[in-house]
Amino acid sequence: AHRIGCPVLLCGVGIGLGLVQRGPYPEVSHLAPGGPAQANGGPGLGDRLLAIAEGDAALEDVAGLPFDEIARRLRGKPGSTVRLQLLPAQGAARTVVLVRDAVRSQAEKSMVLVGGRKIGVIRPNSLYMDFEGKRKNPAGYASVSRDVERMLGELGAEGAEGLVIDLRGNEGGALTEVVALADLFLPGVEI
After folding, report:
1. Digit-coded pLDDT (tens) for 46-93
2. Is 25 helix (H, G, I), strand (E, B) or coil?
3. How many helical (H) and strand (E) elements, i.e. helices and strands, does the chain have?
4. What share of the chain is helix, strand, coil (3-state, %, to 5)?
5. Coil, strand or helix: which one is 182?
6. 120 exposed, middle or buried (CB, 10 Å; 0-12, 13-18, 19+)?
7. Contact in structure between 48 and 26 (CB atoms under 8 Å)
8. Phi, psi at 62, each rounded to 5°
């Protein structure tokens, strides 16, 4: 895996694309906020990945490739290009060119109105934690549980009357963060 000074489970180099295996062709399940895949006409949620190529090489069909091999081909050195042939749910297949870059794990928050009530939505894209940062500075490291806790306070200050934690497309991650997140909502309960 290509990493450029990025703590494990916090960031890596690639295109910021989450896939799930559905039949012979994987389906786009997540686009990392701010990642190359989310920018200008890249893949859309639900698109099927048909083929992949490094730079100008010929596109190779991904049907039958092990999932780990597909993921390996999506990663690469910063600034290198990868071409993806995608089949949207509606329309014809198309090819997009993406430039690999650092992709940071993060959580997003938003507010939606449902029946006239403000509902806060928090969507963590993974269960990330900066283990090295925690070792160096236990009071100031990045983790999904710390980010969600901060966002809960912000949403409360913005007048949220309810909350949705949207884990669709979440890539998983640090088990310690699963427990820390659960502790935010179930204090005093052994997990």
Report:
1. 899 999 999 999 999 999 898 888 888 988 888 999 999 999 988 899
2. strand
3. 4, 11
4. 20, 35, 45
5. helix
6. buried
7. yes
8. -95, -5
